[in-house]
Amino acid sequence: MAIDPIRRRPPLIFFFLFLFIGIWSPVESNYIAYNTTQRIVPDKLNVHLVAHTHDDVGWLKTVDQYYVGSNNSIQGACVQNVLDSMVTALLADKNRRFIYVEMAFFQRWWRQQNDAIKKIVKELVSSGQLEFINGGMCMHDEAAVHYIDMIDQTTLGHRFVKKEFGQTPRIGWQIDPFGHSAVQAYLLSAEVGFDALYFSRIDYQDREKRKDLKSLEVVWRGSKTLGSSADIFTGIFPKNYEPPPGDFYFEVNDKSPVIQDDVLLFDYNVEERVNDFVAAAIAQANVTRTNHIMFTMGTDFKYQYATSWFRQLDKFIHYVNKDGRVNALYSTPSIYTDAKYAANESWPLKTDDFFPYADDPNAYWTGYFTSRPALKGYVRTMSAYYLAARQLEFLKGRNSSGPTTDSLADALAIAQHHDAVTGTEKQHVANDYAKRLSIGYAEAEKLVESSLACLTSPDSKSGCYKPVVKFKQCPLLNISYCPPSELDLSTGKSLVVLVYNSLGWKREDVIRIPVISESVVVHDYEGREIESQLLPLTNASVYIRNHYVKAYLGISPSVKPKFWLAFPVSVPPLGFNTYFVSNSKQTGASMSSLCSSQGSKSSSIEIGQGHLKLLYNVDERKLSHYFNTRNLVKANVEQSYSFYAGYDKNGTDLQASGAYIFHPNGSFPIKPEGQVPLMILQGPILDEVHEQINPWIYQVTRVYKGKEHTEVEFTVGPIPVDDGIGKEVVTQLTTTMKTNKTFYTDSSGRDFIKRIRDYRSDWELQVNQPVAGNYYPINLGIYMEDNSTELSVLVDRSVGGTSILDGQIELMLHRRLLHDDGRGVAEALNETICINDKCEGLTVQGKFYFRIDPLGEGAKWRRSFGQEIYSPLLLAFSEQDGGNWTSSHIPNFSAMDSYSLPDNVALITLQALEDGSVLLRLAHLYEVGEDKDLSTMAYVELKKMFPDKKVSTITEMNLSANQGRATMEKKRLKWKAEGSTGSGTVVRGGPVDDTKLVVELGPMEIRTFLIKFEYIFFPKMGQP
Ligand SMILES: [Zn+2]
């Protein structure tokens, strides 16, 4: 913040002021008792001073560096100083108030405090001087996060606040994330029980219009399905989350003029500073409804010496109220919210969301939707693993001494921060997030292994005393590295493959594992041979495998697998099935037939052994047609790659493309170089088409016999930048569909929102960036429709995507850029991977999936398969040396026996808590009107879901499980929206009857329960 250097007081005025005050009250030159007791005054403009600090849970420094205040040459920031000094500052005056937001920091501090300080802080909290706001572990991002992760990290923070302080945060405070999702509004705010949500970053054009119309404060209806029942009062700050314009920064080194009110000293400035304050208040009042405005007094990592701020705030309150033109008071977002509510106004209604965000005509913050795609993929993979690991922890019984999922929970929570999964942190901080995830995974992996050992053990029902079997897992299976499966079977050993399904439905899928021999056969646990297929490992896969194993693990694998072995599996809900791979002498896995487009005599090649067929044009070596023999959907579909050149800082426009901002300087098609033919592998389970798009893009397209979608696995990198041009790599699926500028993208992995190119529903959009300004975040998928079909694309991690041309969908897959975009991170987004100081650009491998359905039938696939993508099957490996596994182990298991959840319900949390209770969350997956059969009330029978347990108590909770649902409903403020005609017909499930134990879920409803099960005894023989 620049300070105006010519701020000087005219000496004459100073002289008179001195005389006047000096004569009037000579006593005040010694001690001034500042009156800070002011409360709301009904007939005045009330200026709510909210003292706050915004503490990023990692950004330029790691979370721990920020906490302890190390690495200060990067940024002088120490959260420990903030929290220490806050206590003394609050004790000095009981009218002072402070809010604290990020529980990841607060927890670190809390466990280091002695009992005396803890007692004091608890008193500060219960008196309301210190208030927890938002209260999740971090202030999560809203674009690159999945709603399940948002729920988990909020729950973790909220339960900590509840346990230590008995408090339930009332206010959502997403002041810094770069755009805001509908899911944040209705789910992570209204359903959590918040009374209001505040933030600052919305499109600059939107903000200007809202200031004109005084519509910065709105009632936000984020869910079409839940309607007004999930409305949230939402306040958008007029500028940012800092103090108002006019020099009100009071950190020790800040340059704003402090109030000098000692008449015996020079530079007395009370009147001038009071005038500055009143002017700022009036300016803000001019864009705000009601006579309440909020000054956010603080910003990033402020209050490291809290007294420095509070001293000034005391004086402002004292002198401004003496002046009397406006009323200034210590406040919090809760007090402010209550004042707004008491005004009994109707507020403008806002629907949909606040994406994309631009702070300048050429600065769309849509690059971060894809930045650091490997980290985004890792977060998603770990999120799924966390979900499955908690289930297994529950099924085995939570053990206080053994490994837990707690450190993975912490690492994942922190990774949802708005400078973590977003990819907008410095490289060393990104490494820190990955390290935390890896450590958390390692512990959870042990838990999973011991749980599976227990569940496969015949004595598992009686408490699993001595499981002996050892299971191993393969976190690098995606790059074909899996030592347990690369076993030499010729000695007579067989590989045991346990497949765990964390979904509440039975699942049919195809798994693939690397093997070293072509003489293999797969059996199920009943000894039946399972059809299987071998696909040779390509040179491209072998290179990635060797290079990245060396880089990540520091080893060069000695065994060289030659094939992928693919076979279909069928796994019961919330359970596992076991398969056996052994040496075969005669029958066994089918070798894929291999052909090349080069030798083909016909002009096209068809792939697909089931209903779905893809046709490739041989001359052009590319996909041309899609058809489904079951539903007769036919379409011309082409796929292409291109890159956007990132703007550098040269020329007239200084806005570079960077970690946050996507600012393309032209689009360039990527054409296959030379005449590299398509390689086609075909077999009984699946067909694959391998394409070397160019030297740094490799793609495999898969069509499975039993599936009606296409799977595309891309390997992009190292993106060359020797030409000095940063590149953002995209792929397009192009059809002849007439889509009329319209497409749909998900909101944080949940609701789909209609997007219209070059259009915003809230204002007349001035289009400056026809590409970047039409990008949206995608966590689940994107689809478009015409009058007969719909094309859906689903993703395996968060990416950016759009439809720039009618009939076309585009995804951004990877970015490598050479300039910083000037939003604070001060680093170019140029990820590399190094072996012995030799570095190259990071290669990213990922998948997307597409399918075309008759109009109105796509939702089933998007929802069901979307859940399968989110929760992949968990594979664990063991081996046996002859003998019969099935006679000594349980080979097939479902925690739900023969029960299955309805097709429209997903189990999103099943977790044994420390206190012995169980957290259960069920989510209806469909919006109202989304599917003719499945957008209906769903019923889950808990007795069947937990067949061997007896529910002793069940309590419905709010979303973050820190208060009873009924209490929350009763407390939560109901706001009035302009032009809204009441609640409409919202379908929600009724209360759960203790004896029937059936949970009803209306469309899009997520219900959270705390359950206590009766302890079931297994008396030993001979006991009574
Ligand atoms: Zn921030």
UniProtKB/TrEMBL annotation:
Domain of life: Eukaryota
Enzyme class: hydrolase
Family matches, as SMART domains: Alpha-mann_mid (SM00872)
Signal peptide positions (record): 1-29
InterPro entries: Gal_mutarotase_sf_dom, GH38_C, Glyco_hydro/deAcase_b/a-brl, Glyco_hydro_38_C, Glyco_hydro_38_cen, Glyco_hydro_38_cen_sf, Glyco_hydro_38_N, Glyco_hydro_38_N_sf
One of the GO biological process terms: mannose metabolic process
Cofactor: how and how many bound: Binds 1 zinc ion per subunit.
Listed Pfam families: Alpha-mann_mid, Glyco_hydro38C2, Glyco_hydro_38C, Glyco_hydro_38N, Laman-like_dom
Gene3D superfamilies named in the record: 2.60.40.1360, Glycoside hydrolase 38, N terminal domain, Glycoside hydrolase family 38, central domain, Golgi alpha-mannosidase II, Golgi alpha-mannosidase II, domain 4
Catalytic activity from the UniProt record: Hydrolysis of terminal, non-reducing alpha-D-mannose residues in alpha-D-mannosides
Entry GO MF terms: alpha-mannosidase activity; carbohydrate binding; metal ion binding
Keywords recorded for this protein, A-Z: Disulfide bond, Glycoprotein, Glycosidase, Hydrolase, Metal-binding, Signal, Zinc
Cofactors demanded by this protein: Zn(2+)
Documented EC number(s): 3.2.1.-
Annotated Glycoside hydrolase family 38 central domain residues: 363-437
Family: Belongs to the glycosyl hydrolase 38 family.
Record protein name field: Alpha-mannosidase
Lineage: Eukaryota, Viridiplantae, Streptophyta, Embryophyta, Tracheophyta
